[in-house]
Give the backbone structure.
Amino acid sequence: MKQNRNILAALLILGMLASCSTAEDQPAQATDTESVTSEAVTTAAADEITPDIPEGVYYDGYEFNILTSDEEGTIRASFEIEAEEENGDVMNDAVYQRNLALSEMLGVTVRHVQGAYADNGWINDFKKVVQAGDDAYDIFVADQTTVLMNSAAFGLEVSALPYVDLSKPWWDRHIIENTALGGKTYGLAGALNLVDDGAAWAILFNKNFASNHGIPVDDLYQLVRDGKWTLDVMQEYCVDVSADTNGDGIRDMYDEWGCVTSGNAVLAMLPSFGGNFSVLDKNGTPTITADTEQTITYLGRLHSFLNEGNTCITILDTNKDSNLQRSIFIEGRALFLQATISYIPIYLRGMQDDFGVLPYPKWDENQKNYITTAQEWGASMWLVPRSAADPERTSIILEAMSYLSTKTLIPAYYDKLLSEKTTRDEQSVEMLDIIFGSRTAYDLVIAYNWGDMRGLAVKLESSDNTFASEMAKNQKAIEAAAEKAYLAALEAAES
């Protein structure tokens, strides 16, 4: 167990260090997680990489103001910014230790400013501050969609932050580079914001349910190890366990199901096959790929998986009630649950049945690697306001804060919180290694929701597959929205 926890604690750093694909016609591919060994991870963790910031810099108690919403108890809530004192909670204490170390290093006090989530109050406040040329906030934090949609107009391009070094392992280059519309980078993600890690998609399975249906738990893990965990195999399990248990002839939430899906089922599963709705070329120019033959093939197969045979219960079947939907899995009436990692500490800690974690399945066994994506509107990003009074100071603080987070937040989140408190076996920790090590896919058309692409994808969870015709009707609007965002990014960078 300890060896696997060491791998898990170091894997984010390795994943950030790896360079994502920049080929013009290829999406970012997963790293070869099968090649990650404890020896490699130990070496990577032991090698001391330090931030290249000026010596002797000290800001004499400067308050570094980070603006977030006041949302609490959700997957988007920022929990990794400020802690008043140590209280024995693993994450609280890690945040406190990180901030204390930052204060000792640079003389900086981190201050968490929370604006109203209701009616986008904190977003509107941020915009007003920037438009007024005020430097009240050093950092703006929101979900990735919100940050990206506001970055060109209100954010500072990373090239203006001289000491932010994206080649360092504490920055998540897969996300940062895959969001560089027009080749311009605004949003930041890495060791200092754990909310984006919690937004990684995974397949959870109920061990008690599996055992009651004659499914050896170890078989599921071994399929993953052998590279044989595919959509066809997952569907076979779903077919085997689904049943109208009360015999009323109506398939509803009180029956047994193979899989409980979310409203994001297609958005999470398509990337796991290497599919995408859009790609960025090496210059940051977007190309819409939603209408390609490959994408249509993937989507057609997903539609059949979600709708045929009464094996999956979707968010549409529970009137879009996420709590009701999760209860089917929590109460032991489903084998699989499609969820983000954040579900584990937020929604499943009180679950009585034991559960395990698996990566999303491959398309087939010919696919080399497992590929993981994150929920863009659940993951967070940090943005430096365009009105920043001292970008050099901001860049120094960010670089130091990210570096220190690798020594405090990452071990606490990966090693202690996930592997010791919430996941319940050594094999699940091994699966988390694979999930976090393969979190490389990112799709801008979904992040920006150009042409309501999310809405089109959700329709695949209904019985009628009208995606191709709907896509044809929306193609021009999607391409126009992509071009508008691309040009805005270029124009803002030049202003």
Q: What stands out?
A: Residues 2-198+378-437 form a domain with the D-Maltodextrin-Binding Protein; domain 2 fold (CATH 3.40.190.10). DSSP finds 20 helices and eleven strands in the chain.
